[in-house]
Design goal:
The protein is an alpha+beta fold and 289 residues long. It has a single domain, classed as Clavaminate synthase-like (Double-stranded beta-helix, 4-Layer Sandwich). Helix content is 20%, strand content 33%. It contains six helices and 17 strands.
């Protein structure tokens, strides 16, 4: 059995796992340790792994205590690679604002991972913030202001991308999608309270005027994206990063097409989109920028 060691990456969330040795099937005692660490720290980093997609998926499903389905959903079978060099690579250039994947969907996308297939330095980091950690440090009087409020998340052919600049990449869709959730969300597995709004995907807080909406979102974002609380992962080939996509938001620094290769394999689990929600984005920089 692997002798695991955990090294905290920030005081509140994130941990690097040392001593993990992938095996098929994964050792149950090791998985139990990893599940506890995942629920507590939300982001786990593994270095120097040589794994294929099947093993990556086994780790992802194992961390939330589920078996990999014998038959994967059709959308999950589609190769998902984030790359500035591979043909049809997702988000091939530009910067990504903080978000949870598929924040607009009817069901949460629970867990995500990226594996460094080929990374040449210097590489744009993937950055993380914890919505649980943010909730924990909100002043009590501010928490009271948020009780009962709901927010709409999604895109009207493209994401709102608040706080963007000329480097931010936009994903354009043929359709518009959105869903409404409370601003204060309780995590369905851990029970943790979360401040659930994001730069990329939150369209509006319901019941507010446009001016009130923008002012409140700006105030919430000042807590969520406090620089001292951000975890930045500097990529190397063979890195595996797995995170709770309900608790944690992720973003990315600027990637260029003519820059060093940054090819990451993306695996989540389970694939929670309903068939009518599957959209294929076209990536472009914001119009006029």
């Amino acid at each position: 059995m692997s002798q695991l060691k955990l090294r905290a990456l920030t005081p509140a969330f994130g941990a690097e796992v040392e001593g993990f040795e992938p095996s098929s099937p994964l050792d149950e005692e090791v998985l139990a340790q990893l599940r506890a660490a995942f629920d507590e720290r939300s982001v786990l980093v593994f270095r120097n792994l040589d794994i294929e997609e099947d093993m990556q998926r086994s780790i992802v499903y194992g961390l939330i205590g589920e078996e990999v389905p014998v038959e994967l959903a059709a959308a999950e079978k589609r190769p998902r690679v984030v790359s500035n060099k591979m043909e049809h690579g997702a988000a091939p250039y530009g910067r990504l604002l903080f978000h949870c994947d598929n924040m607009w969907a009817r069901r949460f996308e629970r867990i995500l991972s990226l594996y460094g297939v080929q990374v040449e330095p210097p590489s744009a980091p993937t950055t993380f913030v914890s919505m649980g950690e943010t909730w924990d440090r909100l002043p009590e009087e501010f928490r009271a202001r948020l009780e009962g409020l709901e927010a709409r998340h999604g895109f009207e052919h493209k994401y709102p991308n608040r706080g963007g600049d000329q480097d931010v990449i936009d994903a354009y869709y043929d359709t518009s999608r959105s869903t409404v959730r409370p601003v204060i969300v309780r995590h369905p597995r851990t029970g943790r309270m979360l401040l659930y709004v994001s730069q990329q995907a939150t369209i509006e807080i319901l019941g507010l005027s446009s001016e009130e909406n923008e002012a409140l979102l700006a105030e919430l974002f000042s807590y969520l994206y406090e620089p001292s609380t951000i975890l930045a992962h500097e990529w190397r080939t063979g890195d595996l990063v797995v995170w709770d996509n309900i608790t944690t938001q992720h973003g990315r620094g600027t990637v260029t097409l003519d820059g060093p290769e940054r090819t990451l394999r993306k695996v989540g689990g389970p694939f929670n989109l309903d068939p009518d929600e599957v959209n294929i984005p076209v990536f472009q920089k914001a119009a006029g920028k």
